[in-house]
Amino acid sequence: MSLGIDWKNIRRKIILWSFIPTVLALAAVALITFVSYQGVYEDLVIERDRELTSLSAARLREEMTKFTQLLDELARSEDLLSNNRAAQQEVLTQAGRRLAVFDGGVILLNTFGRVIATQPYRPEIIDQDWSNRSYFTQMIGSEGIIFSDALNDGPQGTRVVVLAVPVKGLAGEYHGTLAGMFRIGSQTISSFYASIVRLRLGQSGSIYLVDSRGRVIYHSDFEMIGENFSTQEVVGRVILGNTGAFRSQDTSGEDIVAAYAPVPETPWGLVSEENWVALTRSSTRYGQTLVVLLILGMILPALGVSMLVRERQSEIIERERIEQELNVARTIQKTLLPRQIPQLPGWQISAYWQPANAVGGDFYDFICFPDGKFGLVVGDVTNKGIPAALVMASTRSVLRGVAEQLESPGRVLQRVNELIYPDMPRNMFVTCLYAILDPASGNLIYANAGHNLPYWRSRGGLEELKATGMPLGLMDDMVYEEMEIMMNPGDSLLLYSDGLVEAHNGQREMFGFPRLQHLIGSYSAGGPEMIDRLIRELANFSGPNHEQEDDVTLVAIERFYGDLPDQQTIGVPS
Amino acid sequence: MNYNRREFLKLAGTVAAGSLMAACTPTLTPKTLQDSGGEKVQLVYQDWRTDWFPEMAQRLLEKFHDTHPNVRVFYTPDPDNLEEEMLADMENETAPDVLQGCCDFFPIWAQKGYLLDLKPYIDADLSQDLIKEWDPAQYKALSTREGVQFGLPKYHGALAIFYNKDLFDQKKVDYPPSNWNHDDYLEIMKKLTQDEDNNGLPELWGSMMDISWERIQVHINAWGGHLVDPNDPTISWMARPEALAAMDWIRNRMWSDKVMASLLDVQNIETRQAFITQKIAMVEDGSWALKDILDGAKFRVGVIPFPAGPARRVTLATTDGFGIYAGTKHPEAAWELIKFLVGEEYALAMAEANFLQPARASLVDQWMRIIQDQFPKQTRDMDLSAFAEGHIQGYSVTAEIFANMAEARRLVKNAWDQIFTLGQDSVDLMKRVSQQVEAAQR
């Protein structure tokens, strides 16, 4: 029945619309995840840079220890403690190779800050009063290791940073200051710089070291060495002794993370400026991956559902096609069954045929011979459906053809067997009962190819009509026993297929022969009434939800004493 | 460079692909600095801390900077305890990008994977003509048994015999001929040794040598022996007859003939100083001692190749080289620096500064002229080419190295002190020491 509704279109629209909230939910989850991740990641990046810079500053201080140890070892030399200037100078000269790391030279100041020895020898500064130097004045107070800002104390007034250690006697008394100098400047290849560079800091940006006045004493871009960075916010923070990190912009407007930390026990501050884009590259990649995943998350299910829908539609179309073909097959099969029940004076013939599927393997046929005799066929092809229907069609045709040539039912079945056996599909065969009735005399000659035994009800009671013979198409060279009875007025005969006796109920009980015998025996009427009652009994037995297991065929013949009621066929679809 | 950029990249690609196919291990593919997009690179270069080295290095590096404006190299001198401190630095990834090494510790760094394999760079960037200029023994000593070329020669120190021509003349002893052998050596020592008061402590000794691994090894090699099995660094050959015979020869000169001074005979002063102060007439020393000897000697100095032994003529080549730390962030720039360091300019600068004999054979003549220009009087008739003979004629050897060299050195030094310096044991002691050394390798 069709109400003009395009169910396919509606179904497609439902599927499509159900995607929109799913996609929106996915997008929202992805966005929230990414924003949260971005926030946490950026915090971590900044924190990581802060930690890294702080650690690097500590490592830099440790590197400086190599140099201060060198000075410290020399400062313990006995000759350096003497007041003999020549001996003191000799100590420095002898240590010249070890002191070569100080490319700005080494100087020895006495207790009052006068220069008394140098390495290399710098006669122009010997005896000069350098007591105003920070590394001397600070020594008075602390007597520890002193690191200076950038000063012009190097040879020929070159710019240097100074590392100074106290010269102490055995009792700890102060004898002077030993100061090693490192040249600074863009052209310098000082060991001091080597100590910083080898730490391999600042991988994706710049790193620099400023003194307490904001002067750059080292920069990864060496052209910047000597510049005054004191006005920069980050430098302002680090020279106050603070440690931290923040997002900012460099002079060219690039986004950076500026991290800063003072170098412990020195007046220097270490600053790293890392490129924000480079630092967050992995986060950006994550975002891109998320977008790709989101797109895939939307497209893949859509594609999946679309394919599923298409598959289902194909299945429906295919099923409809098969159903249509089956309907055609059923119609064709119906044409193979007798369209009319033969009208025989004094006889009433009824038939019922109901396949389990659209088409079936059961069949019956009536053949009217020119001499007034009447052929009666009931057959059952093993299996059901199309294969059985095809075998049924061919068997029926062969049998009808052979029956027109031969009179003997046994010979007919024998010949039919010979003809269909070679082409019979494996595991298939046909049970068939063929009888020839002489309506005038009531004589019935029959042969049976493995079919259910017909029931003959007469004055003598109910009797099975036996005759031996193998089903058709099963074995070659078969002969079929022929039997003969005389049907008198009042007698009736029921031919049936196994779909009736082998039907099951919900308790898996079989309808069975005893039940059938009992029913036939208990009816007074034969013919259509009996068929009608048997069908009802079968329906009651099987139950309301029963699914027909096998094809059911019933053919009843009854001989009357007088006028005949109308011939009927029951259950044959029109 | 003998390749244009296209050829270079092609070669580099071939080398990288070949290496990958051969070993399926990650291999650095050389690329030119131009490929790095003009990035400014800072390198740390560590080398000797001698008096003369820092100034020379700084001056030369400025020249390197002129040709490599994007690279800044910071020189740092070797630390005092180079072997140990470098291992710590390498472990902490704070080692210099380019460094010098030698002796037995340089291969140890390579074995530990701390040095870059230079082979792909060499294959792509150095001509065969240049490679042939290096002493094969020295070049091979800068590679591991697995074929990792971890260094390129820095200079070529070679062992020879310095002799005091004035003393030879005074004693009317002929100068040694260049084809002399150990028997000649002994005869000359005997003629030169002078013990006027006959107290067993000569005032002048015929010759002297350092009792050290490489110096003893050279004599053993001349006898056809080895300290270490050439095919297995865990097997000792120092107790084999050839080795024992060579050591016995040295001991007999010191303690039987009394013609070769021990350290105690010259009051513990260095062999070089003993020669300069004329306590000995000859000394087994290398080209690296030239500057000190010419600076200090107040007499005419002669040089002669090492005498041949019963089996062959041998001299020692040093194994000082330049390498690249495997953890460097700038291998291409470091390779550029290495090329500069093994180049003509740097070699001649080292020759100028301290008479270091160049590793490249083609520079030997210039090296000799530099020395002759600075010491025209002392080097008149001096055959400086004696130092290059081993290199040119291919009879140089390098120090043989055990797998556990530190323990081998310790055990052997103690034994040699007993045998040579103190004369308290015979060379048979080496049979026991040899077993101990082998045990230490397991």
At a glance:
Chain A has two domains: 44-279, 2-Layer Sandwich (Beta-Lactamase), CATH 3.30.450; 330-570, PPM-type phosphatase domain (Phosphatase 2c, domain 1, 4-Layer Sandwich), CATH 3.60.40.10.
Can you walk me through this structure?
Chain A is an alpha+beta fold and 574 residues long. Chain A is built from 13 helices and 21 strands. Chain A has 2 domains: 44-279, 2-Layer Sandwich (Beta-Lactamase), CATH 3.30.450; 330-570, PPM-type phosphatase domain (Phosphatase 2c, domain 1, 4-Layer Sandwich), CATH 3.60.40. Helix content of chain A is 39%, strand content 23%. In chain A, the strands form 4 sheets. In chain A, strands 17-16-19-20-11-21 form a 6-stranded mixed β-sheet. In chain A, helix 9 (385-403) packs across helix 10 (409-420). The radius of gyration of chain A is 58 Å and the shape is rod-shaped. Chain B is an alpha/beta fold. Chain B has 2 domains: 5-156 and 319-371, Periplasmic binding protein-like II (D-Maltodextrin-Binding Protein, domain 2, 3-Layer(aba) Sandwich), CATH 3.40.190.10; 159-316 and 402-441, 3-Layer(aba) Sandwich (D-Maltodextrin-Binding Protein, domain 2). Classes of the chains: A alpha+beta (574), B alpha/beta (442). The interface between A and B is medium-sized, with 24 and 30 residues.
Number of helices of chain A: 13
Sequence stretches where pLDDT stays below 50 over 5 or more residues of chain B:
1-36
| Architecture per CATH nomenclature, i.e. the level-2 architecture of the largest domain in chain B | 3-Layer(aba) Sandwich
Number of helices of chain B: 19
- Beta fraction of the residues of chain A? 15-25%
Give the chain pair forming the largest contact, with residue counts. Answer: A-B, 24 and 30 residues
* Total of domains of chain A: 2
Physical arrangement of strands within the biggest beta sheet of chain A: 17-16-19-20-11-21
Overall geometry of chain A comes to rod-shaped
Portion in helices of chain A: 25-40%
The largest β sheet of chain A comes out as:
6 strands, mixed
Query: What is the CA-CA span between the terminal residues of chain B?
Result: 46 Å
How many strands in all of chain B? 12
- Can you say what the CATH homologous superfamily of the largest domain in chain A is? PPM-type phosphatase domain
Q: Which segments of chain A are poorly predicted (pLDDT under 50) over 5 or more consecutive residues?
A: 570-574
Largest sheet of chain B: 5 strands, mixed
According to DSSP, the number of beta strands of chain A is 21
- CATH A-level architecture of the largest domain in chain A: 4-Layer Sandwich
As for the number of domains of chain B, it is 2
Structural class of chain A: alpha+beta
